[in-house]
């Protein structure tokens, strides 16, 4: 039978048409980075009065840790509440688990830390999507999460506390 292979159900998320491409993912990263920089400026402005309005020095180790925590909460809150940062929303992409379920805070932390490591290796963790058969980066693999294009299959996921208009 010629058409019988078309009816075989694939594992969720393994369909190449449900994956965002390399340049689309890169555009999301750039878009979110611009937004994160603005958030870090505000976070710094909030903390500056506590340092008498002076610039932070290299001896004040808490400042980079503070900025790292702000960055984590920026990404993790969006990922765990709807699966989309503003950049992901603009490019119609969603972060979900491999089986298209919402990600947990633990997965968000793993994804965030693994992304830092993968970009620390000259972006090799991100470039990995070019050779991975499922187009997943190092941080996708380590956190067991991945990016999906917004399709009818990914729209069934609702953010916690979201009320559907027809309920």
Task: Characterize the structure shown.
The protein has a two-stranded antiparallel sheet. The protein has six helices and two strands. The radius of gyration is 19 Å and the shape is elongated. α1 (22-47) crosses α2 (62-80) and α2 packs across α4. With 167 residues, the chain is mainly α. Residues 1-10 and 162-167 have low confidence and may be disordered. The N and C termini lie far apart (43 Å).
Give a topology summary.
Layout: H1 22-47, H2 62-80, H3 86-90, E1 93-97, H4 105-120, H5 124-127, H6 138-143, E2 145-149
Antiparallel strand pairs: 1-2
Quick recap of the structure?
With 167 residues, the chain is mainly alpha-helical. It has six helices and two strands; from the N terminus they run H-H-H-E-H-H-H-E.
Provide tags for this entry.
mainly alpha, two-stranded antiparallel ribbon, disordered C terminus
Helix percent band: 40-55%
**Helix and strand sequence:** HHHEHHHE
Strand order of the largest sheet: 1-2
User: What does the overall shape look like?
Assistant: elongated
**Can you summarize the main beta sheet?**
2 strands, antiparallel
Q: How many runs of DSSP E, i.e. beta strands? A: 2
First and last CA, distance: 43 Å
Structural class: mainly alpha
Radius of gyration: 19 Å
Tally of helical runs: 6
Average pLDDT taken over every residue: 86
